[in-house]
Each structure stands twice: as structure tokens, then as C-alpha cells.
Amino acid sequence: MGAKRPRLKHANQLNFEHNLSIMIRPMTLQTILIDLDNRGVATVSLNRPDVRNALNPLLIAELTNTITKLGQSDEIRVIVLKGEGKIFCAGADLAYMKDITTFGYDDNVKDALALGNLFATLDTCPKPTISVVQGGAYGGGVGLVATTDISIATSDSKFCLSEVRLGIIPGVISPYILKAIGQRHARKLALTAELIDSKAALACDLIHTISDSPHVTLDETLAMILQGSPAAQTATKELFRTINARPIDQDLQSLTANAIATARATPDGQEGLKAFLEKRQPNWIKKHD
């Protein structure tokens, strides 16, 4: 049970990959990898291991476009989201953060809406989605975990909503964090920026399974999903979104984008980002003799 299924390059598979490559073009992918198998499982891997798969505008755009295209394909059954290297996703890229410090309000709103669109795309994807987390997920990386249907993490994984330590807020990810773990857990993790382990993440429902053999656990999960009706799974996801207390709509996305844009422009937002980039403590941390 759980043995890895061989990926056979038979005629149907080659035709499938050819069709999908045409669908995903014209974008040349630089920051993600896509692996397809003959079951209709698409594995999308963040491919910036040298910077711990940190989010930057190109990765955000490529991932949004890819998830959109895969979600629209009748040949795709399941989307698996992974990270290359030792860390699933470290949040925002350092160079990206440096750029943010120079943004005006309108640029901040535009940037935040693009990031919010990524999370909305994952959250509303009609296909079942699974995240496999190794090493850790921080900031926006936690948002990626929260917007997938199922999340598997290794026992050594860490999770952190670190934004307040940078003087900003978990803006565009906040609706998804609240949906995933509830307001009480979210308040504690966001206000303290506490680094939690996999057991704590499991206890608050951020992840579903802890596994030191994530590939085996993933194969077992895929086997169960693939027994279900694709149409029924899509309809189930749509139904659950419809009946949820508050849908994540354009108004809510605009509200959260404006909230993070405002936070970035505050003195604390500027100070926190600069302190992080300069590897010093922000000025709101009081020094004790």
C-alpha cells in the first residue's frame, strides 16, 4: 500500500502532456515546475529553492496562471502543490520586500490584489488541491496551505504568521486563515507571530496530517480522491463555498488589499520592513538593560 505509481510515457500520456503544454503557453515558466501523470494528477512545485521558495511577483503570476489553467482542464483530476528544496515557502522574497518599501499607496493596492488573486484562485479552484509541506511555511506560505483542500506536513515543519513583527498585517490571506483555523486560533498566531510546529498546526486545523513519509501519505490520499466523481467533487467544492457564512468576493478582496496597503504605508510598516532587511530589531521593541 502506498507504493509509488510508475509514470508511464504511453501514447495517451504523451498526448495529454502535449495538450496541456499548449494550454499553459504562452507563459514560459521560470519559477515553478509541473509534473503530470497518467491518472490526471498535476504536481506543481515552487521552484526557487535558493531563496526557500519565497514569493515574488513572477512566482505569484506564474502560479496563479498555472492553477487557473489546470483547474479549467477536463484532463486534470487533482492538483498537488509542493516546494522544491528544504522549505515549502518562506513567505515574501527579500528583493520583493525591498521593492515594497518604495511603493506608493496605489502600487501597494495593485500588488496586494495580485497576491490576493493567487489565494482566491487556489481557494476557488474546481479541482481537489493538496499541499505537501516540508520544512516550513511562513507568511504567505501559510496562505498557500490554508487555501488548499487538504494539507500534509512533515513532523519537522514550522508555521508562522510573522507579519506584525514587520509592522504590517496578514491582509489578503486573513479570510482564508480565518476559514481554516477560526478566529481564536488566528488571533493568537497573528498577534504573537508565534512559530508553531506540526502538532500545533494539526491541533488548530491548519494541516490535516503529519507524516514522515509524505509521498506515501500523498499516494494514499490521491487513491481516495481518485475514487470519487470529478463532477461531484467540483460541485461539492462549489456548494461548500456557496453556503459558507461569508463568501470571499471582490469586495472582501478589495477590503483586505486596501488594509495591507494601508499597513505597509504606516510608520510601523516602513520601520518593520526596513528593520528586517537591515537585520536589526524594529524600534517598537523596547531594550532592557
Key words describing this protein structure:
289 residues; alpha/beta; 2-enoyl-CoA Hydratase, Chain A, domain 1; 6-stranded mixed sheet; 12 helices; disordered N terminus
How are the secondary structure elements laid out?
Blueprint: H1 11-24, E1 32-36, E2 41-46, H2 57-72, E3 78-83, H3 94-100, H4 105-123, E4 129-133, E5 136-138, H5 140-147, E6 150-153, E7 158-160, H6 174-181, H7 183-192, E8 196-197, H8 198-203, E9 209-210, H9 214-225, H10 230-243, H11 250-265, H12 267-277
Parallel strand pairs: 2-3, 3-4, 4-6, 5-7, 6-9
Antiparallel strand pairs: 1-2, 7-8
Helix pairs in contact: 2-4, 4-5, 4-11, 5-6, 6-7
Q: How is this structure best summarized?
A:
The protein is of the alpha/beta class and 289 residues long.
Describe the structure.
With 289 residues, this protein is α/β, with parallel strands linked by helices. Helices cover 49% and strands 12% of the residues. It contains 12 helices and 9 strands. It has helices spanning 11-24, 57-72, 94-100, 105-123, 140-147, 174-181, 183-192, 198-203, 214-225, 230-243, 250-265, 267-277, and strands at residues 32-36, 41-46, 78-83, 129-133, 136-138, 150-153, 158-160, 196-197, 209-210. A hairpin with a 4-residue loop joins β1 and β2 (41-46).
